[in-house]
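User: Hi! Is it possible to get a structure for several chains at once, not just one? Here's what I have:
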Amino acid sequence: EVVLTQSPATLSLSPGHRATLSCRASQNIAKYLAWYQQKPGQAPRLLIYGASNRAPGIPARFSGSGSGTDFTLTISRLEPEDFAVYYCQQRDDWPPYTFGRGTKLEI
Amino acid sequence: VQLQQSGPALLKPSQTLSLTCAISGDSVSSNLAAWLWFRQSPSRGLEWLGRTYYRSEWSKDYAVSVKGRISIDPDTSKNHFSLQLKSVTLEDTAVYYCAREFTPVSGLDCWGQGTLVTVSS
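Assistant: Yes, the chains can be modeled jointly so their relative placement is included. Here is the combined structure:
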């Protein structure tokens, strides 16, 4: 089973700053990685699929990069609504859907 | 596309959890999409439970952690799919979500609103 390790667990930043979130896979998953945003009381929301493709309606300040075992989600200039928990998810190995434990982005 | 979940939120140990996910804007019989159930708890994080999809015939896959207790069934007449989890314990307390995977590389692009299911004696 692929284990996804997200870092840091908590990231404290101010609006307008740049956020860099990391996700490391325990084995090569090519580009089969997605990123989600989750706010309290809400379902996860797809941000990035295929490691670097923005989902429809996602602002351009969100970008994803990486392949193999190391992946990054970057938020170029934080808006107040971006403070949430972010999860990475792999789609390469069995079981076919595993998630990291999340990074909490706080003000 | 929208997914609307329904089902009871409070169960006693040994009962069966039953949830339904109604689909609008797509078809449970789609030859592209897969229909999934997840749950989320502080102890287990986001956990995949199972999926069903149609590719000229129906397929179903289940997570090892719940295999033997779980059933995911499509209903083409109502355009929904359901989750049944038998013999629940306190450890099955979680928020349950249904979701769509449009293609294997598209990510989980649509989610239900979530149902907090509490197992308590």
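The two ends of chain A are 34 Å apart (CA to CA). The longest strand of chain A covers residues 19-25.

User: Great, thank you!
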